[in-house]
Amino acid sequence: MSTLVITDLHASVITDTGDIPILNGVSLTLDSGVTHAIMGPNGSGKSTLAYVIAGHPKYKVTSGTITLDGQDILAMSVDERARAGLFLAMQYPVEVPGVSVSNFLRTSVTAVRGEAPKLRTWVKDFKSAMTDLQMDPEFAERSINEGFSGGEKKRHEVLQLGLLAPKFAILDETDSGLDVDALRIVSEGVNRYKGATGGGVLLITHYTRILRYIAPDVVHVFVDGRIVLTGGPELADELESGGYEKFATADA
Amino acid sequence: MTSAPPIDHSPQVSSADPADFSEPSSRDEEWRFTPLDDFRIFFQQSPAGDVRAADAPYVSNIPIADLRSTWVASDLPTAVARAGSQQAVLVTIPNDAVLHEPLRVALVASADLAHEHVEIVFGHHARATILIEQPEHGFVSGSIVLRAGDGSQVNLVNAVDGARDRSMLLHVHVQVGRDAHVTSTQVSLGTASLRVTSSVGYDGPGGRADMLGAFLADDGQFMEHRLFVHHDQPQCASNVVYKGALSGASTHTVWVGDVLVRREATAIDTYEINRNLLLTEGARADSVPNLELETGDIVSAGHASATGRFDDDQLFYLQSRGIPANDARQLVVRGFFAEILSHVEDPHWRTDVMARITSRLGMEHLHDEFGHDEPDG
Questions:
Q1: Does the pLDDT at position B375 exceed 60?
Q2: Which domain holds residue A176?
Q3: Which residue from A75, A91, A68 is spatially nearest to A1, judged by alpha carbons?
Q4: Per residue in A127-174, pLDDT tens?
Q5: Interchain pair B320, A54: CB under 8 A
Q6: Interatomic CA distance for residues B370 and A102, integer angstroms
Q7: Least C-beta-crowded within 10 Å: which of A160, B132, B244, B345?
Q8: Which chain A residues touch B if contact means CB-CB below 8 Å?
Q9: How far apart, in whole angstroms, are the C-alpha atoms of residue B59 and residue B188?
Q10: Backbone phi, then psi, for A196, in 5-degree steps?
Q11: Distance from C-alpha of A49 to C-alpha of A39, rounded to nearest angstrom
Q12: Hey, are the CB atoms on B319 and A79 less than 8 Å from each other?
């Protein structure tokens, strides 16, 4: 049982012309086995929240705390956060030419587990994880995300999620750019991760369609860099029909 | 196509006599990027030692006067080195011979200042991989001449990993026989100052030259790589791919690629590219591709050059998967160079080149492919 606690988090994006505040006091507690959905309009800062948790250097935390089982996440480097049990499935996974998926994943799994997996079990686990996501075996020898279609990139993210088995998975618009079949495959991958590890999930999305496959326990509405409303799964349905307008104009 | 008259980048003087050359000056196009003081030691005719290899099958040390080939230099230091050399290293691969194991030629300089001449002769339809390791110690200047016989398949690696207080100046000439395929790879890691000029000529139609290069420069190293591909035969091909990674203030690399396609060189295919990766602020990479066409009757011709900064998003992505920053950075750099490997099938070549780069990056501990792992118990 793990807990990720975000308390009154304020953060800015660093730009050439100065820092721009994006997060304006986010407080959120995630527990193992619980799925939270954060829904909000474009530009509300929900992806920034994901990047700040992961430690992207483009963002600066100006106040507030993030702790994982009492450990100060903000004091950790990006890779330390991953090894502590956080995982960010990115909306736009980065291409790394010349580094094969198999080499990358084995290096990554070794780093996160603290020891190299046994060769025989690794090959088996890797192959079955790829089969589960309906990925072609030749995928393993391709360079990371290079020339991948949108769907392949997201499958590759969820492949990593399954193999790294983090305590908490943050999925940043994992549904974007996916057709219905790919959405189903990717969602099943996330559900398999939950079933296998009992991990917690923070699902960041603009649309509700992924919530038909990954059932949220808690839904948050995110506007202007903070959570403005929290409810159960029924809140997602309200947003689907009513949109974000009434929230966007709330403090105008 | 440009309407301006072509500038002839072919050497202006060809001679074996140092007296026919004037001393290089920073006003010369050929030398304008070079810190001349680092190489001035190679401009005068002064007593110098030799460069030798251990005698081995296919490899012998012979008096340079016994070399049957004629050869001329195109600049002063190469002519000085040739005129001052007493000894040559001769590598001969007989006609039709196929070597399944790579031939390793480790060179040693006999004195602090040494002249080098390596002559590599492939008979017709011979096939082999040759790995030349340049001397670790000494100030060395000289040349490597490769003559690839008709239909031969040559894989040549020239590795420079000398001590960091030394300078080296080398000319590599590749003469491609009819239907021969030469892959020549320059791996430049060491020395304080390095200048390698390469030239490619063709003896007949159907020849192909892949001129590949990987260089890593840091801590104020200077490295210059110049290539001159002279297409004067029809239906030949050339492909130049050089990649460099630079770090450290005042580190400076130069890449100049000249391709000259003569009127008679119809139906040729040529491409050249240089990519540089700047790992830190302050490092400087000059990159100048030149392509001159005297005929439009060709298959294709192209050139490209790009110098970019290290992509922090790549670093973030790998780190976010638990990989420590230093390992992540090395993976990216290694991946940058790995693209060169796609140009060659020979597994010995891949292993050697990648091992050298990996070792220089200090990342031997990162596992490579499954085959390299310890068996599980």
A1: no
A2: 3-248
A3: A68
A4: 999 999 999 999 999 999 999 999 999 999 999 999 999 999 999 999
A5: yes
A6: 9
A7: B345
A8: 54-57, 77-79, 81-83, 87-88, 90, 93-99, 102-104, 106-108, 110-112, 116, 118-121, 123, 143-144, 160, 164
A9: 23
A10: -75, -35
A11: 12
A12: yes
Residues of chain A with pLDDT > 90: what percent?
90
Say whether B375 and A119 touch across the interface (CB within 8 A): yes
pLDDT band at B203 (very low <50, low <70, confident <90, very high): very high
Look up the CATH number of the domain holding residue A155.
3.40.50.300
Report angle CA A61, A63, A65 to the nearest 5 degrees: 85
| Whether B141 contacts B81, CB under 8 Å | yes
Report the candidate in B90, B94, B93 with the shortest Cα–Cα distance to residue B67.
B90
pLDDT, position B5: 44
What ranges do the domains of chain B cover? 18-310
> pLDDT above 70 covers what percent of chain A?
98
8 Å CB contact of A79 and B328: yes
Is B336 in the A-facing interface, judged by CB distances under 8 Å? yes
Q: What is the pLDDT of residue B16?
A: 85
What does each C-alpha distance from B254 to B8, B221, B243, B326 come to in angstroms? 20, 11, 11, 27
Report yes or no on whether pTM surpasses 0.90.
no
Distance CA A48, CA A44 (A): 9
CB pairs under 8 A between A and B: 101
Nearest-CB residue to A78 (from B316, B334, B336) = B316
For the stretch A205-219, pLDDT in tens is 999 999 999 999 999
Portion of chain B with pLDDT greater than 70, in percent: 93
pLDDT in tens, A29-44: 999 999 999 999 989 9
Residue A68 to residue A65: CA distance in whole angstroms: 10
Q: What is the C-alpha separation between B283 and B248, in angstroms, rounded?
A: 6
Q: Tokens in use for A187?
A: 């969602």
Q: Name the residue among A56, A81, A97 with its Cβ closest to that of B335.
A: A97
Chain A touched by B313 (CB under 8 Å): yes
Residue A89's pLDDT is what? 97
Rounded Cα distance, B46 and A239, in Å: 85
Task: Name the strand (E) or helix (H) holding A110.
Answer: helix A101-113
Cβ separation B327–A121 shorter than 8 A: no
Shortest Cα–Cα distance, A14 to chain B (Å): 14
How do strand B103-109 and strand B49-53 relate by DSSP bridges? antiparallel
d(CA B137, CA B86) in angstroms, rounded, equals: 19
The domain total for chain A is 1
CA distance B321 to chain A (A): 6
Q: Which residue of A has its CA nearest to B373?
A: A119
| Nearest CB neighbour to A96, from listed B320, B332, B367 | B332
Question: Is A94 within 8 Å of B314 when comparing Cβ atoms?
Answer: yes
- Number of residues in chain A: 252
Give the minimum alpha-carbon distance from B275 to chain A in angstroms, rounded to a whole number: 13
CB atoms within 10 A of CB B257: 28
